[in-house]
Sequence to fold (284 residues):
Amino acid sequence: MSKILFIDVDGTLTDYQGNIPNSTIYAIRKARELGHRVYICTGRSRAEVYANIWEIGLDGMIGGNGSYVEDHGHVIFHHTLSAEDEKHIVNWLHEHNLEFFVESNAGLFASENFESVALPAIIEYSTRKDHPDATHMTVRKAFPEMIFDGGLYRDDVNKISYVLSSYQDHLNAIQEFPHLKNGTWGGAGETALFGDIGVQNIDKARSIQTLLDNLNETFENTIAFGDAKIDIPMFKLCAHSVCMKSGGPEAKAAAEYVSDDVERDGLYKGFVHLGLIEDDLHLI
Fold:
């Protein structure tokens, strides 16, 4: 019976340099040949899903950690911040001297000093993810299509990420924006490197359910692949779940199966383990 696969991008489909293993490309293409459907399910906005990802062959995507759902080019829904909330967030971040980038499907738009201020956090993030050349990482390498001179006040924004000067910035944001979804990434608790602010009551699981309703499918034939705490809701919703070996302890505990690291053919091995494809490449 064909399955519906939901695959996180960073740390699952790609490594943290953005590289896609050949075994991953093979696994996804082979699975689709066999009738399985494949959707990426990512924190990235559509503008961050570059051509090399689409060229693998996908049925669609869930982006912005659930704020956007697309099936074969058809937009099923897209929840964005209101123009009023977006302006409030941008002004508040400016007032608190916090550098940020605005995430929309049209692009990533960086604040005035984001490139310089975010560099230490980007290097630290790359170091934590075992990037072999972390000390030479740059913001432009991390976000190759980021726009550095675009307008920051927009009406098409999925979420806004900002560089934390301390964890208190995140706590202050919760107080300022209690009606919005406040999160952090790049680390847990006090080790977090970035905060983000988006639409409330949005997560990967809720958007998967919306897509399944649109497809007239149920969760019995679903499989989730991820590597982070934010993937846990979709692990819990889907019938089967696979976490990459590089994932955090909470994500691993929530998953049915822990595969290898992405750069060690983790996604391919997960596909084989669940019987989606045969081990044609003899990597297991």
Observations:
- DSSP finds eleven helices and 13 strands in the chain.
- The mean pLDDT is 94.
- Residues 224 and 241 are 5 Å apart (CA to CA).
